């Protein structure tokens, strides 16, 4: 037989080439000879391996001690700085790593180098279908017999009851995902309340914005008046109502029919929630008038009413109709005229309601 | 004198001499730079400054921005952009622009402080605009927490929450903000260079701008609390690191686990 290492030509185990329809013949090569490890033959090597395993376990002990010392000895009380926290974090991490790795690598090294290394081969036996099936049936019968479930209906019935009731907590938890939001997604805080138009205010401090404050090239991050005073659901309302306010040269805006009075002297306000999956679109380029969504690079062109010019978003950003009140502050004349943000099941239905 | 000459071969003499030399040059340099800073921060322009600036402008800038800075098809009009815009663009080396492209790059400044001052004086004389900020707004001693909030609302979407910068559309990008001087940060907010929006005083008040600068300088000084920040650009670099280093370690372990000991 050819030996791979000495490069001599191989005579047996010929490989059938294409066109040769001979049945390839294999001789069972058997198991390779068992090779003893150094530690099996040389007591010195065994001693060395023993020491190595001990060192690995020892490093685990050291790691645990490092963790404990770092945890208890480093004081994070008042007067500690971020450098102290950093030091403690690093030591806790190093300690845990050594504590775990030491045990793991030690056990593996022990098993590989010192524990007995018999080689065992298990012969594969042919599958006897009918016999196997009957053996399996016998096992099940045995189980039923030995558990005595037929003889003890109390146990059986309570078990059935327990299994039947067990999924109920899941039902309760998932039940809290409802009720359905109805048209909550379609409306925002911008809708006028009792005939009073909502002012556009600065994020985060909530001060109103004068039209004269918004110079050409400016970008204001806007929240609706009264958002900061909400006690409940403030973040949910903010997530729907955030707006980016920009001013550009009025000549570069070409409002479509019906939108002529939605802007004021080149000041426009658009929803900041991407129509793709709802990331905040706030990367405004004041020269190209592009708005870029940082998540998936959807790009909206402000001069074309935020039409999508690149990326996966499917709809333009909704525009907020704005005007100026008697004191010169910017106000929203109504809510958005379509649901903001990404698509959802009932969106089409809600949008039809807006249009009718 | 005699004692000095006797001790000149003392082993510590060389060290003492070196120390003295270093102190002397360091001290001189410190004095020179404070003088320089004091000059740069003066916002009053003389008629002479504007006149000299006009000459510099005609020689270096008018090709694109036109005579009288009225703009051509190659460059915008500079009437009303203010001294702050010139100080930022020329002071950071972005102008004169190296070549046409999506964005002007930061590069070593081509004009010295005096020339920059003169150019600013000239452009400021053309029309009112944002002026070079007062020294007390640039001390980075404001409220870092409020600055952080303003930064996350107004700046972080482009410049990254850790101010490491980020990509914009079609080859443009928002630069990283580490190592940018307080004055240039302020001027960028006030003037909106290139595609950056303008954050005028009605939008972010001068105190707010001071807070933002404080925040930026603070995170720059504090560094990353969690160790190596891998550029602070988020999942891309972190994922790549885990993919290469983490998987590498796992593969190494599996090879070790399945190998026979000698």
Structural class of chain B: mainly alpha
Give the termini separation of chain B: 75 Å
- Major β-sheet annotation of chain B: 2 strands, antiparallel
Dominant shape of chain B: extended
Helix content of chain A: 25-40%
Helix/strand order of chain B, N-terminal first = HHHHHHHHEEHHH
Number of helices of chain A: 8
Largest contact between protein chains? Answer: A-B, 43 and 31 residues
The chain-level mean pLDDT of chain B equals: 86
What's the count of strands of chain B? 2
Strand content of chain B: under 5%
Strand order of the largest sheet of chain A: 4-3-2-1-10-9
Task: Write a structural description.
The complex is a heterodimer of chains A (356) and B (262). By secondary structure, chain A is an alpha+beta fold. Helices cover 35% and strands 11% of the residues of chain A. Chain A has helices at 38-41, 43-73, 82-113, 129-147, 153-165, 168-175, 234-241, 347-355; strands spanning 198-202, 219-224, 243-247, 267-271, 283-285, 290-292, 299-301, 307-310, 322-324, 330-332. In chain A, the strands form two sheets. In chain A, strands 4-3-2-1-10-9 form a six-stranded antiparallel sheet. Chain A has a four-stranded antiparallel sheet with strand order 5-6-7-8, with no helix packed on it. By secondary structure, chain B is mainly alpha-helical. Helix content of chain B is 53%, strand content 2%. Chain B has a two-stranded antiparallel ribbon. In chain B, strand 1 and strand 2 (173-174) form a beta hairpin. In chain B, helix 3 packs across helix 6 (113-124), helix 7 packs across helix 10 (206-222) and helix 9 packs across helix 10 (206-222). Chain B starts with a helix and ends with a helix. Chain A binds chain B through residues 35, 37-39, 49, 82, 85-86, 89-90, 108, 112-113, 202-204, 209-210, 212-221, 246, 280, 282-288, 290, 292, 294, 297, 299, 310, and chain B through 149-150, 153-154, 157-158, 166, 168-170, 172, 174, 192, 194-200, 202-203, 222, 225-227, 256-257, 260-262.
């Amino acid at each position: 037989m050819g030996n791979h290492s000495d490069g001599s030509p191989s005579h047996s185990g010929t490989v059938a080439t294409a066109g040769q329809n001979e049945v390839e013949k294999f001789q069972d090569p058997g198991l390779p000879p068992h090779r003893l490890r150094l530690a099996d033959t040389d007591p010195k090597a065994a001693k060395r391996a023993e020491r190595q395993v001990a060192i690995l376990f020892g490093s685990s002990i050291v790691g645990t001690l490092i963790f404990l010392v770092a945890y208890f000895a480093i004081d994070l009380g008042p007067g500690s700085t971020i450098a102290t926290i950093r030091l403690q974090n690093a030591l806790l991490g190093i300690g845990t790593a050594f504590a775990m790795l030491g045990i793991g690598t030690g056990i593996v090294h022990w098993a590989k180098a010192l524990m007995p290394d018999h080689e065992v081969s298990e012969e594969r036996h042919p599958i006897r279908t009918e016999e196997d099936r009957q053996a399996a049936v016998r096992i099940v019968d045995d189980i039923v017999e030995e558990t005595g479930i037929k003889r003890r209906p109390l146990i059986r019935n309570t078990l059935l009851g327990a299994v039947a009731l067990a999924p109920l907590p899941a039902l309760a938890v998932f039940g809290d995902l409802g009720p359905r939001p109805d048209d909550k997604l379609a409306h925002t805080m911008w809708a006028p309340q009792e005939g009073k138009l909502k002012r556009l205010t600065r994020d985060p401090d909530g001060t109103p914005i004068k039209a004269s404050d918004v110079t050409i090239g400016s970008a204001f991050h806007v929240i609706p008046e009264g958002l900061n005073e909400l006690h409940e659901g403030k973040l949910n309302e903010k997530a729907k109502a955030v707006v980016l306010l920009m001013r550009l040269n009025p000549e570069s805006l070409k409002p479509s029919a019906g939108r002529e009075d939605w802007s004021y002297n080149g000041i426009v306000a658009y929803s900041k929630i991407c129509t793709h999956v709802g990331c905040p679109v706030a990367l405004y380029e004041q020269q190209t008038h592009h708005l870029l969504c940082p998540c998936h690079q959807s790009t909206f062109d402000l001069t074309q009413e935020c039409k999508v010019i690149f990326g996966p978003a499917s709809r333009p950003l909704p525009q907020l109709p704005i005007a100026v009140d008697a004191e010169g502050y910017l106000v929203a004349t109504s809510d958005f005229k379509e649901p903001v943000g990404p698509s959802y099941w009932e969106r089409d239905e809600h949008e039809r309601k807006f249009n009718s | 004198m005699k004692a000095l000459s006797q001790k000149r071969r003392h082993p510590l003499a060389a060290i003492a001499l070196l120390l003295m030399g270093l102190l002397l040059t360091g001290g001189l340099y410190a004095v020179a730079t404070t003088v320089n800073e004091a000059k740069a921060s003066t916002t009053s322009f003389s008629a002479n400054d504007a006149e000299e600036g006009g000459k510099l402008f005609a020689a270096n800038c008018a090709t694109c921005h036109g005579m009288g800075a009225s703009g051509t098809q190659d460059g915008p009009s500079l009437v009303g952009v203010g001294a702050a815009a010139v100080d930022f663009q020329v002071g950071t080396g972005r102008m004169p622009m190296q070549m046409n492209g999506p964005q002007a790059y930061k590069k070593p400044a081509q004009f010295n402080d005096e020339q920059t001052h003169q150019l600013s004086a000239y452009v400021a004389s053309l029309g009112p605009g944002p002026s070079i900020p007062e020294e007390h707004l640039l001390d980075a001693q404001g409220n870092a927490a409020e600055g952080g909030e303003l930064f996350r609302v107004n700046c972080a979407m482009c410049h990254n929450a850790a101010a490491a910068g980020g990509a914009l559309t079609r080859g443009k990008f928002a630069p990283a903000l580490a190592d940018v001087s307080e004055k240039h940060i302020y001027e960028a907010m006030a003037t909106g260079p290139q595609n950056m929006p303008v954050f005028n005083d009605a939008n972010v008040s001068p105190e707010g701008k001071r807070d933002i600068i404080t925040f930026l300088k603070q995170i720059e000084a504090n560094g990353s609390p969690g160790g190596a920040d891998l550029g602070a650009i988020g999942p891309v670099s972190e994922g790549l690191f885990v993919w290469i280093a983490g998987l590498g370690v796992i593969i190494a372990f599996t090879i070790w686990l399945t190998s026979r000991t000698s």
